[in-house]
Amino acid sequence: MLRLSRRALRWPQRVRLPSRGYTTSLPAVTKIEKLVLDNIKAVGPLSFSQYMQLCLLHPTDGYYTNPSNSIFGREGDFITSPEISQIFGELLGVWFSLQWMNAGKAPAVRLVELGPGRGTLMADILAAMACFVPETTTTRVHLVDISPTMRQLQASKLTGRCELVWNESINDIQPSDKFFTMLVAHEFFDALPINILEKRPTGWHEVKIDAETTQEAYPRLRRVLSPTPTALSTVLANSSPRFDKLPDGVHLEVSQSSFRHARKIGELLAPQGCALIVDYGRDGSYADSFRAFKDHQIVDVFSHPGQCDLTANVDFRYLKEAMADLVPTYGPIPQAKFLTLMGLEPRLEALKNAATTDEQKEAIETAAKRLVDPAGMGSQYQVLAISTVVDEDAGLYPFVESPDASES
Questions:
Q1: What's the Rg (C-alpha) of the chain?
Q2: pLDDT over threshold 90, residue 5
């Protein structure tokens, strides 16, 4: 766990970190790094949420908006479940189809995806739904993405299947009782900005980002602690009754953006609809999960700002609290359990039987097994469901035996 200095009484208070070493040949300052340093020089230390916003979503030089960044696949910084195996998206499509049937087969369906990447997941969902839902019923797909590069990739995969609508924000999509709304958010919430707090006898203080005091140091940024609780840290600490129960000295990662997005999801689905949120996290809070990835490796969160993926584990309980008065929620349950109960094995056998070579069969099986690996994606990724149409006696399959939730 990260330890904070207790001795300094004036701003900024330095967070004590293990020595990261010094070098005579420092990496060049990135464009985002210069923006961060200039901002700090002008107004003082930045919050982690501001830092993540700049690094990931700066209009031209952010990690997700700069077309020169290879994000997905083997040449990128991470590989997602939909890119590993088509079975992932197909089984999500089967689940959505079941909800539509249970809702009485509504005449009009719209799908919404938050952070649709290359469009692979939505393509697989639509392919599976086509087996159950008439083509004329699925009238519209909303893709929430601000990256022009990603939008082009999505269009290449999805054009011709149904009407495509791109939105810069979920706030651009309005609730409607004319549609049965289906929403999917896969590895979306983990990239939303977080704030980092520390609880002290004087209240919740905010951990912020300042410039290093030595020019030879790299990374050029460091963590500092506000000398007193800030207005924002106090508001965030009071946003869940769970946080007040945490002991002094602990850290807490809180995403106000996640709360707002979850709230909006609840509003969208309240008239009628369902959703699946798939991400790495748990039904509880985290102290120190914030990390950076570059070339499939974990790197310092202050290394090469704007050129690395930044992520933090998802507090699923926080998402549920945000929409508790709007829609029922179920889970989360491990990805392995969800995929297995939704029919991974039968679908895997069907794909293997259709393969023409032993090499193809082996590749198909290896990819599918990776999705449910109990030492990896199968347990690290969790699935949270929302549905307004549930049989009170039977429950919501496959969430009928969800594990007890954590209180943290």
A1: 22
A2: no
- Burial degree of 213 (CB within 10 A; 0-12, 13-18, 19+): exposed
> What span, in angstroms and rounded, lies between the C-alpha atoms of 279 and 127?
22
Pick from 223, 232, 221, 222: nearest CA to 255: 232
Q: State the Cα–Cα distance between residues 406 and 408, nearest whole angstrom.
A: 6
CA distances to 162, 290, 291 from 311, in Å: 32, 6, 6
Q: What is the DSSP string of 253-301?
A: EE-HHHHHHHHHHHHHHSSSEEEEEEEEEESS--SS--EEEETTEEE-T
CB 370 within 8 A of CB 85: yes
Contact 379, 334 (CB under 8 A): yes
Angle of the 358-371 helix axis to the 344-354 helix axis, nearest 10: 160
- The pair phi, psi for residue 266, each rounded to 5°, is -60, -40
Tokens of 26: 């420092």
Spatial distance between the Cα atoms of 150 and 158, rounded to a whole number of angstroms: 12
Query: Among 23-32, 110-119, 167-176, 220-229, whose mean pLDDT is lowest?
Result: 23-32
| 300-310 pLDDT per residue, tens | 999 999 999 99
The amino acid sitting at 368 is A
201 burial type by CB count under 10 A (0-12 exposed, 13-18 middle, 19+ buried)? exposed
Place of tokens 């919050």: 47
Whether pTM > 0.85 for this model: the answer is yes
What is the rounded CA–CA span in Å between residue 331 and residue 97?
19
- How distant is the alpha carbon of residue 85 from its chain centre? 19
Where would I find the beta strands (DSSP E) of 162-255? 163-167, 180-186, 195-200, 203-211, 221-225, 251-254
The one-letter amino acid code at 321 reads: E
